[in-house]
């Protein structure tokens, strides 16, 4: 399969998620001439505002501002095909809180169009139309836990998985386009081994990552044997950093956590890791693969 024939679709919950989790992947395939499509499910209206002079923003104002941030980030990466699920503002950031055990959950008070409360079929059909028009061989989204439990990440996972199934069914909504079978569905995940290495370095440097709780680095990501592909960060490191820094309302690159993130990006073998969720496996001799399209 030549690069221009390759088509990749990524589904993320909020502006900035694409830059913190998939920027190297997108930059690589754009540079190789593949078609890269990003779907963002909300405007991130309830994100934590880190810039003091912007703390007066209402949720609507923050959502508008974050649209500008993601435009800047995607210009750094080179992605030109970007859509909001159902159109900009169709689904509102659900927000998040923690239960008594510290687990991330949806807050009890939510906007009427909060993504967490979306009708799953309706939301999936918005994505079915995108899948059938773009015809990606590979789709990437979060794992069932949304990687860390944010309700919008969990919902993005559910929508993407359901949409991939519906898109291939000839009897389902023919008005949304010709059926299309996605060949491989991936879940982006922590690069477990590199995460543990970076955590050790960060502790040695005295960085305060989660001062309120103890974190076992071995429990942060999946068993490394389950990781089927890793897209190396090193060739795209400056692009990744520029894209992430574009999200100023959400990311303070001088914060200890993002310093830890920089350490992880610089480790030998560092990269964006993926699990196989559905579809054609990677060639056994090539796992972890360095190409999301290997074997297709």
Question: What is the fold's blueprint, element by element?
Answer:
Blueprint: E1 7-12, H1 17-21, H2 23-31, E2 35-40, H3 59-77, E3 81-84, E4 97-98, E5 104-105, H4 120-134, E6 138-141, H5 151-167, E7 184-189, H6 192-204, E8 229-232, H7 237-245, H8 256-266, E9 271-279
Parallel strand pairs: 1-2, 1-6, 2-3, 6-7
Antiparallel strand pairs: 4-5, 7-9, 8-9
Helix pairs in contact: 3-7, 4-5, 6-8
Notes on the protein architecture:
The structure is a single chain. The chain contains eight helices and nine strands. Helices cover 33% and strands 15% of the residues. It has a single domain, classed as Rossmann fold (3-Layer(aba) Sandwich), CATH 3.40.50. The N and C termini lie close together (7 Å). The protein has a seven-stranded mixed beta sheet with strand order 3-2-1-6-7-9-8, with helices on both faces. The protein has a two-stranded antiparallel sheet with strand order 4-5. It has helices at 17-21, 23-31, 59-77, 120-134, 151-167, 192-204, 237-245, 256-266; strands spanning 7-12, 35-40, 81-84, 97-98, 104-105, 138-141, 184-189, 229-232, 271-279. The protein has 296 residues and is of the alpha/beta class. Strand 4 and strand 5 form a beta hairpin. Helix 3 runs antiparallel to helix 7, helix 4 crosses helix 5 (151-167) and helix 6 (192-204) crosses helix 8 (256-266). The longest helix is centred in the first third of the chain and has 19 residues, at 59-77. It is globular and about 55 Å long.
């Amino acid at each position: 399969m030549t690069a221009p024939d390759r088509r990749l679709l990524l589904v993320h919950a909020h502006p900035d998620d694409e830059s913190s989790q998939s920027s190297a992947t997108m930059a690589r395939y754009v540079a190789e001439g593949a078609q890269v499509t990003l779907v963002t499910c909300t405007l991130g209206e309830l994100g934590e505002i880190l810039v003091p002079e912007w703390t007066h923003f209402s949720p609507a104002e923050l959502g508008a501002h974050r649209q500008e941030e993601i435009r800047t980030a995607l210009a750094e990466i080179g992605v030109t095909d970007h859509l909001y699920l159902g159109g900009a503002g169709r689904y509102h950031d659900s927000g998040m809180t923690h239960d008594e055990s510290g687990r991330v959950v949806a807050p009890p008070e939510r906007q009427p169009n909060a993504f967490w409360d979306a009708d799953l079929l309706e939301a999936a059909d918005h994505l079915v139309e995108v899948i059938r028009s773009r015809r990606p061989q590979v789709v990437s989204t979060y794992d069932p836990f949304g990687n860390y439990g944010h309700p919008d990440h969990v919902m993005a996972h559910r929508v993407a998985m359901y949409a991939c199934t519906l898109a291939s069914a000839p009897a389902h909504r023919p008005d949304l386009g010709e059926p299309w079978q996605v060949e491989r569905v991936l879940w982006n995940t922590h690069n477990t081994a590199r995460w543990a290495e970076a955590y050790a370095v960060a502790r040695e440097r005295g960085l305060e990552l989660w001062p309120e709780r103890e974190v076992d680095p071995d429990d942060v990501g999946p068993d490394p044997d389950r990781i089927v592909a890793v897209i190396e960060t090193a060739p795209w490191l400056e692009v990744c950093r520029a894209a992430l820094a574009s999200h100023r309302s959400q990311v303070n690159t001088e914060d200890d956590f993002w310093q830890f993130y920089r350490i992880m990006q610089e480790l030998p073998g560092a990269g964006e890791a993926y699990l196989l969720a559905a579809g054609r496996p990677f060639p056994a001799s090539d796992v972890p693969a360095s190409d999301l399209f290997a074997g297709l």
